[in-house]
Amino acid sequence: MENHIFLKMIDEIEACLEHELYMSALMLALTIPDICGKAEYPHAKYIVARYTGWYNQYMEQYHKGASAYDVDLPYLSGEVVYNLRNSIFHSGNPNIDCTKVQQEECKIDQFELHFGKSLLGDTSAVSYGAGMKIVERRYEVNVYLLCSRLCSKAREYYADNTEKFDFFNYSIQYYDA
């Protein structure tokens, strides 16, 4: 496999994680569904459709509960991750705007990012009030784990779909100082 610029980006995300540059890693990792979504859905009219489509197809399995008891628990859907991406890139805010999330179970009231090299999974919680009415949804994201999973899935996706990355029509030259 050639040393494609996309693979170089993944290497740099992993280097950021190794050097505890979690916000930099997260910001670059949030471009992975953009890039892979363009490869998977090159004719999709809207970026959000490509982004969430790829994320939901390849990443949602790590976040959505498989149990009937998980029905009310929020999870890191493509829509939530796209919302986080937009919030970070367009306003520098590493949070989500739940008013822009359409999926009811993912309208997260309390959203937190956790930095560190822990491999503990994300935490999802629901608080109920009278009549079992949901009063709060909480989600805590392990940034190290999210970035690592995005990198791993992106490498796998690239290896299986190299021909779809023909839209990279430039090269970058590296020179030592």
Please estimate the helix content. Answer: 40-55%
Secondary structure category: alpha+beta
- The sequence of SSEs as H and E is HHHHHEEEH
Order the strands across the largest sheet as they lie in space. Answer: 1-3-2
| Major β-sheet annotation | 3 strands, mixed
Number of DSSP strands? 3
What is the C-alpha radius of gyration, as a whole number of Å? 17 Å
Shape, please? globular
Number of helices: 6
Count of spatially separate domains: 1
Report the average pLDDT across residues: 87
Low-confidence stretches: none
First CA to last CA: what distance?
27 Å
Q: Strand fraction band?
A: 5-15%
Describe what this molecule looks like in 3D.
- This protein has 177 residues and is of the alpha+beta class.
- It has one domain.
- Helix content is 42%, strand content 11%.
- It is built from 6 helices and 3 strands; from the N terminus they run αααααβββα.
- It has helices at 5-18, 22-29, 32-40, 47-58, 78-91, 143-160; strands at 110-114, 123-128, 134-142.
- Strands 1-3-2 form a 3-stranded mixed β-sheet.
- The longest helix has 18 residues, at 143-160.
- The protein is globular.
- The model has no long low-confidence stretch (mean pLDDT 87).
